[in-house]
Every structure is written in C-alpha cells, then in structure tokens.
Amino acid sequence: MAEMHSLLTYDNPALAEADPERESAPEAVKAAVCQNINLFMEARPGTRSAPRAPAGRCPRGRCGAG
Description:
Number of strands: 0
Number of domains: 1
Structural class: mainly alpha
Radius of gyration: 13 Å
Shape: elongated
Number of helices: 2
C-alpha cells in the first residue's frame, strides 16, 4: 500500500496539462490507483459491500464510479 500512497501523493508541476479539460499523466495514474484499490476492496472475501474511496480524494471524482 505504501507504493499506492506514493503514487497518490506524487506531484510534479512539469507534468501538468496545459488544457484543463484534458487529463494529465499524474491524474490518470491516480485514477488508476483508485480504481485498483476499489477492485481490491470488492474482491476481499467476507465483505458484503466494499467502501469506495471518497470522490474528493481522487482525480475528477472517478473513484466511486463503478
């Protein structure tokens, strides 16, 4: 999980997207990490419904999308 945390907290202004409508590379990585965490939580045995990551914590609110 430490690796996922480091990817979620990584920030590099040089990789920022000039167009605010387009997703930057770091945003895409963060969204993928959030999706992987949600898949992991859903696949855990013994859980009836897995909690989703809060939408405000992931790029463009894509964490809760299912």
